[in-house]
Here is the input.
Amino acid sequence: MADAAKLMRVAKIITDTYKEGNDVVVVVSAQGDTTDDLIAKAKEVNQRASKREMDMLMAAGEQISISLLAMAIDSLGYPAISLLGWQAGFETNTKYGAARIKRVNPERIRAELDKNRIVIVAGFQGLNRYDDMTTLGRGGSDTSAVAIAAAMRADLCQIYTDVEGVYTADPRKIPGAKKLDEITYNEMLELATSGAQVLNNRSVEMAKKYNVELEVLSSITVATGTKVKEVTKMEKMLIKGVAKDDGVARVALIGVPDEPGIAFKVFSRVAKAHICVDNILQSVGRDGTKDIAFTVPAGDADAAVESLRDYCEAVGTKELRADQDVAKISIVGAGMETHENVAAGMFEALADAGINIQMISSSEIRVSVLVDKKDADRAVAAVHRHFFGE
Amino acid sequence: MADAAKLMRVAKIITDTYKEGNDVVVVVSAQGDTTDDLIAKAKEVNQRASKREMDMLMAAGEQISISLLAMAIDSLGYPAISLLGWQAGFETNTKYGAARIKRVNPERIRAELDKNRIVIVAGFQGLNRYDDMTTLGRGGSDTSAVAIAAAMRADLCQIYTDVEGVYTADPRKIPGAKKLDEITYNEMLELATSGAQVLNNRSVEMAKKYNVELEVLSSITVATGTKVKEVTKMEKMLIKGVAKDDGVARVALIGVPDEPGIAFKVFSRVAKAHICVDNILQSVGRDGTKDIAFTVPAGDADAAVESLRDYCEAVGTKELRADQDVAKISIVGAGMETHENVAAGMFEALADAGINIQMISSSEIRVSVLVDKKDADRAVAAVHRHFFGE
Here is the structure.
C-alpha cells in the first residue's frame, strides 16, 4: 500500500466483502515506502545490524499499516480492529529474518469476528519462543494469509496483487496473454518456479498442504481473478502458461574424464557451496571424456565455478565456464501429462522461430528449455502463439 | 532523538556508562519526526481515529527508535538488546492514549542484564489486560524510566533532556539563572506545576513515591546535571527557582450576592465542566455583595465562564469575565518554610519594579502571584535578581 487514497480503496474492497455477510480477516504487509525508509535508517547506524534487531525494526512497518487500515475502515463506518502477528496467534521458530510459522492460534481472531469486527492482521511477522518479534522473509505476507485461512478453515483466501490474476504469459510482454479462471496448486508451483512472479511458492505450498482455495486478483480493478485449487474444471487447455526466467546461468564443464562417480563428485561440491542446481545435462561420452552442464541462479554462477575449479584442474577438465546470457522458457500445464505432443509443439514453435535450444528439462506438468537471453522474449511469444493463438 | 548522528551520540553516552561497570537500562521515546509523521498519516485517513488504533500506530514509533539505538550500540562493539514495553514487563490499565502503569515485571530485563547486555526499552507504552498496546500519554517516557528504576531498585535514574539540569529560572530568558546541584521532589513538583517544563509531574511523583533518585541532564553536553532526591544538602539557598506560567487565565465574578454557600455553588459548577481551578481569591463582602476570582488553564477560560453564566444571571451578578492577559510567577524552595520573609522579599522586588500583583497564593514551599502578561518576563527577572543577584 502506498498512500491514503490507496488505503481508502483497500478499505472499500474490504467493507464490500463484509457487507455481503462474510467474516473478514485481512492480512496486510507494510507500505513499500515505510519498509524502504526503515532499511535506510538502519543502514545509517549499522551496515551489519543483527537480524533480531532488524526484525524488531521491520515489524513496525506492518504495525503502522494495520492501524492505518483499521482507521480507514472505521472512517467508512464499519467496525475494525488491528492485530499484530503475535496477537493474531503467529508462533514462529527463532530464525530471524526468515522465520517459519510453527503454529497459528486464531483464538483472538475468532473472538473479534464474534464481535462482528473486521480483523486486520499484520502479515510477515510473528513471535518466537523467547517472546521476540520475528519476520517471515520473502513471501511472508501471503504465507501469513494462507496460514490464517488454514487455521480458520476459511472458505477462500484472496491474494490481492498488482495484477488481475494468473496469465498464460506475462501480459506486459505478450499482448495475447489470457487470464486463467483456474489453475491447480501444482501448476501454480511450476509456474512460480519457472519465473512467473505472481505468487511466492511458499504460500502456494502451504495452500496445497492445507487445501486452502486461493484467488489471485487485483486491488486496483474489481475483476474476478484466478482461482488456485486442487482440481480445476476439465478444459481444452493443454497448458496453463508460458513463463520466462532470465535470472539463471549455465555452468559447463567441457571434456571431463568419463569415469564412474563424476556426477557425484561435481554436484557434491556445488551442494557444499549451498547452491541450488536446476537442470542438469550430461553428454554421452566421446574420446574418453564427456561434458556436464547445469543451471544455477544467476547470482550463484561465479561461486559454482569457484567450487569446481580445484576439482576440474585435478582431473584435467578442458574448460570450466559460466554463461549468464541465457534464459529459461517453460510451459506448464496438467494437460500435458496425457498429451505427449505438447513438448514437441513447443520445440516446433521454437524451430519455426529459428531459436536454438541449449538444454531441455521437464517434469510431469512442465517442459523447460534454455535459450540465448537475446531470444527469450521472442521465444515466449512464439510458444504462446503456438498454444494460445494470436 | 532526531537522526543517525544523534543516535550515535546517545549510544556513546550509554556505552560510556556501561564501560564504568554499570548495569544499564535505557528507556527511549520515539523520534520526534516519526511521531509527527505517524500522526499526519492517521489524520489523512481518519480525523477521529479510535484511541486504541492510535496507540497501536504510535507504539510503532518507539519500536523503531529502540531497534535503531540497539543497532547503534552494536556498531560501537557493545552488546545491546531492544525490548518493547510489554517485553519489558509494562502492564497498564485500559485507558488508551493515557494509560496508567499497573505493574512492571522486570524479569526479562533482569535476564538480559545477566547476559551483560545493555537493555533498550520502549518508553511510553505497555500492554493492557486485553493484550492490546497502550500508550501512557504526556510525560510517558520519563514515567516509564522511573517505573523501571523503581521496579529494579536502580541506584540512579538519569533523565536526558535538551537542558543541562534544573535552573533557578529559565536560562534562555534570565542570563543570571543558575543550575541547581540538587532539588527535593516537592520543590521539583512545585516548580513543574508553576510552569517549569523540565520534568513532567507524573514522573517526579512516581520517583517521590518509590524514592528513586533522579538526575536531570543534557544529552548534548556532558556536564553533571541536577539531582532530584528526598533530602538535599543544607544550603543557604532559600528558594530553588523562579518560574513563569503564562498558560493561565483569570476568571472573575464581580458583585455576587454575599450569601453562605456561594463558593460551593460556583466551584461545583466549574468542577462539573471538568476544569481544574488553581488559585482562588474571594474579597471581603461590601454592600451585600462580594467578588470571586480564580485561575484556570488558559484553554479552559471560555468553558469556565460558560459553566457559570446561567448561575450568575440567576443570582444577579454584576459582571462575569475571563482575562487571558495574565501570567503566574512563582518562587519555590523548601527554605521558605522556616524563613517568613521570603514572600515579603518577592513582593518587595515586584514593587520596586513597579509591577502590580493581581492575586497571591502559596503552599508551604511556594509563593505564586498573578501579574499582567506584559510584565511577566520583567517580573521573573526582578524576583530572580532579588534572590540570586545579577
About this structure: The domain at 4-234 of chain A is CATH 3.40.1160.10 (Carbamate kinase). The longest strand of chain A covers residues 248-257. The mean pLDDT of chain A is 90. Chain A touches chain B at residues 3-4, 7-8, 38, 41-42, 44-47, 49-50, 52-54, 56-57, 59-61, 63-64, 66-68, 70-72, 74-75, 81-82, 84, 87, 108, 131-133 (CB under 8 Å).
